[in-house]
Amino acid sequence: MTDFPRPETFHSLHRHGFVRVGASTPRVRTAAVAFNCEGILEEAHRADEARVDLLVYPELCVSSYAIDDLHMQTTLLDAVEDALAYIVSESADLAPVLLVGAPLRHDGQLYNCAIVISHGRILGVVPKSYLPNYREYYEKRWFSHGRNVRGRTMKIGGQEVPFGSDLIFEAHDLPGFIFHVEICEDYWSAIPPSSDAALAGAVILTNLSASNITIGKSDERHMLCRSQSSRAMAAYAYSAAGPGESTTDLAWDGQGAIYELGDLLAESERFSLDPQLCLADIDTQRILNERMRTGTYADAAEMRRIEFRRVSFDHRPHWQDAGLIRPIRRFPYVPNRRSHLDQDCYEAFNIQVEGLRRRFETTSGSRMIIGVSGGLDSTHALIVAAKVCDQLGLPRSTILGYTLPGFATGDSTKSNAWKLMRALGIEAAEIDIRPAAKQMLSDMNHPFAGGEPVYDVTFENVQAGLRTDYLFRLANQNSGFVIGTGDLSEMALGWCTYGVGDQMSHYAVNTGVPKTLIQYLVRWVIQTEQFDAETNEVLDAILDTKISPELVPQGEEEELQSTEDRIGPYELHDFFLFHTMRYGLPPSKVAFLAWHAWRDAEAGSWPIDFPDAAKREYNLPQIAEWLRVFVQRFFGFSQFKRSAMPNGPKVSPGGSLSPRGDWRAPSDATAKLWLDELERSLPD
User: What residue intervals traverse the membrane (predicted)?
Assistant: First the structure.
């Protein structure tokens, strides 16, 4: 366990497992070694000011790439070695590890190399493994390949340094800062060297590239970076040569890109005449956690067993607040790609439709029974059920919808429930549960039965339990089954009545969908006109209704009972849930990410077409307050409800809480470990 200074480092990206990576396209001129050297150092200083940890330059950037037989000229090669010595000496006081490309001689052979430089010393030299020699490429004319260069050393600039394609570099003072270097064509090969390096433990994969530009090639590079970062469960930083290279027969666009687990974090401006530096903070902890929980990764590592040398170095991380350069989704469950918006929402909605359709077909019943409150969850479950009827060619009257008003049911929600049932054309009815609830409370000798305004958990759960009890008996009576309306967010928090309440159903169609995604899907249903105008009008009104269990009567001066006032904003809880369940992040890091995502409503991006009036922000004390609630409820006492939850479809890659799926945990665990981690990490 790393012994970090705790509260004082909370705002440091290094404290939370992030490494700042840059892809640089410096100024370059054909074979102008001194000019190129200055351009490299200019970008090194700019990266140092930006608190970069690792800086990736283009292939052969010291000499420039497109110089053909000039690579074989002694004068040029001598100048390259002198320039490297100068770069090394100038790096002594710079924070970034520099990955510089240059042609180097060794034992009578010339290699296309990446030189790894840190704090005034060369850590190692990596030769290019695969040399393109087709179409416009003639690299085998000049260079020797490095595939078999393993276990060797090279003397350069007075230093004897590791030399070979078997090198992985690791900062001993910054956990997770473990990187590998490959060069251009290497990642166009069927099995890139970085694949084996990742299996051997490299977390950040880098590529120094030249790569001339042709139509469509930028997309191909993106595809390869995205694919490699996803398949190798790693980050991938790519830097290609830009304007200034020889255009005798080729052109260059200077593409830089940084990916993590298939996600694009940053890319540079292409064809720019100015030097480019694209930056992103890589989450090494997320990567390592993902590898740890994916057995296939360990199996592949065991099968290949390629040996690498680990070069350890002293990085000297600053442990200071340098911000966070990284896109963070406020709503990690909500689709955020405009180009894929319709497809993502279509898939999410129809996963639910397909799950319910299949379950309905396999039951012996002929009706679907659902309690309709006029709230968001029952609304979404109902429109999913209506789509099932449409797909199966059944009348929507196959659905029996019931309003079940209790002591605190509002006129607005009940009115919306009736409007929605009528608009959808289902069979609808109302059962007032208050007489039965009064009888039960009286039988229990509850103070409310004697006229006292006691609205405790018993009072609430008598109503919640009766609603479910009625629905199950109505299902018996009508040869049907009960559609559950509870969602993923409620199951995470245990915000549901166990067994006889809304936790139980015959099929929980919403159980894989968090509250924030349900809101978005209902908006998508309206925008794409899945139903008629009358239905859309009601759905719009329901979206504007405050989320409430409507279990405690509202006094004349009292505001409507609000779920979020009691347990916290669902938008925060869904954020906490995603990062806790999907990646196993500690509470302190979840708080750090939430603070960067939510502290400024004007910064960052919001989901597409998200209403301006709904855009909120939270400071760190607010985030910490509700994170404590989440941790206590999620780890401390809600698992027993999840262990007994009914079937329902997984919808999001963020996971589900089914005990048969993503999340399996003991029902008698304690939240103390997670609460303590949060408290000792937060700043005063």
Answer: none
> Annotated binding residue at 225?
no
Q: What angle do CA 440, 441, 444 make, to 5 degrees?
A: 90
Assess whether 589 carries a catalytic annotation. no
**124: phi then psi, degrees, rounded to nearest 5:** 175, 165
Say how far apart CA 538 and CA 620 lie, in whole Å. 37
Question: Both tokens of residue 54?
Answer: 């690792």
Range with lowest mean pLDDT among 111-120, 161-170, 557-566, 611-620: 557-566
Would 319 be classed as within a structural domain? no
Catalytic residue among 37, 61, 113, 184: 184
Quickly tell me which residue has 């009972």 as its tokens.
Answer: 561
497 is in an annotated binding site: yes
Pair (620, 563) in one structural domain: yes
Is 184 annotated in the active site?
yes
Among 43, 59, 245, 290, the one annotated catalytic: 59
Which candidate, 582, 588, 665, places its Cα nearest to that of 294?
582
Helix axes 533-543, 515-527, angle to 10 degrees: 150
Strand partners, 483: 507
Total count of domains within the chain: 2
Cα–Cα distance, 118 to 92 (Å, whole number) = 7
What residues are paired with 245 via a beta bridge? Answer: 243
Determine which one of 61, 128, 185, 419 is catalytic.
128
372 annotated to a ligand binding site:
yes
Neighbours of 112 (CB within 10 A): 28
The number of residues making up the chain comes to 684
Measured CA to CA, the distance from residue 635 to residue 673 in angstroms comes to 9
376 assigned to a ligand binding site? yes
Range among 141-150, 243-252, 608-617 rated most confident: 141-150
pLDDT in tens, 351-388: 999 999 999 999 988 999 999 999 999 999 999 999 99
The verdict on whether residue 158 carries a ligand-binding annotation is: no
3-state SS, one letter per residue, for 314-329: CCCCCCCCCCCCCCCC
- Is 371 marked as a binding-site residue? yes
In a domain, 463, yes or no: yes
DSSP, res 499: T
Nearest to 522 by CA among 320, 334, 291, 339: 334
Is 641 among the annotated ligand-binding positions? Answer: yes
By the 8 A CB rule, do 424 and 451 touch? Answer: no
Q: Are residues 537 and 452 in the same domain?
A: yes
Domain coverage including residue 249:
16-313
Q: How far is residue 32's CA from residue 540's CA, in Å, rounded to a whole number?
A: 64
345 assigned to active site: no
